[in-house]
Every structure is written in structure tokens, then in C-alpha cells.
Amino acid sequence: MSPEQYDTLLVRSVNAHVMAVTLNRPEAANAFNSRMARDLYDLFEDVAMNGESLRCIVMTGAGERAFCAGGDLKERNGMTDAQWARQHLVYERMVRAIKDCPVPVIGAINGAAYGGGCEIACLLDFLYAAETARFALPETGLGIIPGAGGTQTLPRAVGERRAKEIILSGQSFTAREAFEWGLVNRVLPLEQLLPSAIGTAEKVAANAPVAVRQAKQSVHRGLQMSLSDGLAFEIEAYHRTVPTRDRREGVLAFNEKRKPEFEGR
Fold first, then answer.
1. What is the C-alpha separation between 205 and 170, in angstroms, rounded?
2. Verdict on whether the full-model pTM lies above 0.85
């Protein structure tokens, strides 16, 4: 798929199989408004429908200040309850589109990930963070609760008790704490962040695409099941890889001691 033009996103092809997505409202600390939510929804729906050649996505924020400061409260100022609820439906569609992305999405968290920005980060498959990045879910201080998945995704990353402390107190935490608690995979100097995330994306993209997609689904959906049901789901996902050309190519390349050439079929 070719990069599209969006009002609030910068989308570029790193190579034939890796795409970089930058949240691009630096004047608002990359806070997402209705337009950005629609742009993200459109982008990830397009990936789901037309992204056969795409194998990995890297998401980051414009500038050094913020990955995403959350929902744009200036846009919400003065909204009636009904208007607020209607707008939130757009956010809910965005969340589902990101969560259900069939290909892996790596977060390169370059700065503050607060509120909805932290929730977007939690929706991604795994995260690298700059040393200066910070995280917070401060919604209870605004009279609401996290509404873009935070009460569900954060506990799955850091555990119930840690998530309660973060959400109920609203206190921010550092990239190093996020790493120690299991939310972030690596903490890096800012200048190394995006190259490292892209490097990992390229390693993901070099593997068999059908297998990668099935492995992602097996891990994610299996965690919502009992162990017995998860094991059964894994076997179903495994058997989807057996009749593929890529499975035959992978085994042949191994025996011929060469690098496999996967086609995603």
C-alpha cells in the first residue's frame, strides 16, 4: 500500500514492507482531536483491508516534546454531554482499529504519553521509549476515567495493583519505571529511538508474514482465554501456516543454508 496524505499524520514507507506513522500536531503536543482520531481510524482500516504487502508499522510523535498528550481538551471545551458522547464514538472506533491491526505495530515513544496518548501506546504491540519520555493516565483528576482502553490494556501490561496505583493517583512515571514495570521493552537515547524501532520492524518484516500475523493473534487473543482454550487457539493458528508457500520456503532455505525469500503466501 502507498502512503496517504492525512491532515494530522505523516505516513511514509521505510521500505516495501515497513511503514512509519507520525502523530503530527506538534503545536498541540500531538494531542488527538476528532480529525486525528478519524485519520488513525481510516489509516488502520486501510491497513486491515488493503495492507497485504505491509509487514510492520512504527508509530511515533512529531518533535521531541510529546508522543501524544491525549485527547484535545480545547476541542472539548464547552461541549454538551451529548456532544461529548458523540465525539467519543469516534475515539472508540480509533481504538478498535488500532487494537485490531493485523500486522505488528511498534511504538517509538519520543516524549510525553499522557491520557489518551498513554492509552494509544498501550494498544500497540510493544514499545521502545526515549529516556526523557513520561507516561500518565490523569483522567480521574478531570472527573472521568480512561476511556480509550487504559483500564484494560494497562493492567495486562503492568499488573492489576500497579495499574490501579497509576490510574487512581494520576501520577506520571518515567520511561525507566515503565521499563521496570513491563510496559516498555527498551529505553534509549532519543537519537537512537526511531532507528532502533525501525531496525526491529525490519527484522519482523524479514520473517514469514502469515506466521507473524498468526503469532500476533495467538498471543493477543490467547491471553483473553483460559490456558486450555489458548492452546487450542494456538494450534488453529499454527495449522494456518502449514499449507503456505512461506512454510515450504522457510524449511527449504534452512536446509539449503540460505536466507528465505518470503512472499506472504
1. 37
2. yes
Q: 29-47: b or e for each residue (b if 16 or more CB lie within 10 Å)?
A: bbbbbbbbbbbbbbbbbeb
| Torsion, CA 85, CA 88, CA 90, CA 96, rounded to 10 | -130
State the first-to-last Cα distance of the chain, in angstroms, to the nearest integer.
17
User: What is d(CA 194, CA 68) in angstroms, rounded to the nearest whole number?
Assistant: 16
Torsion angle of alpha carbons 228, 234, 240, 245, nearest 10°?
-150
Cα 171 to Cα 30, 71, 141, 150: the distances in Å are 20, 17, 10, 14
Number of neighbouring beta carbons within 10 Å of residue 223: 9
Strand partners, 21: 11, 59
Distance CA 6, CA 4 (A): 6
Cell of 143: 472527573
pLDDT digits (tens, 9 = 90+) for 207-265: 999 999 999 999 999 999 999 999 999 999 989 999 999 999 888 889 988 898 888 88
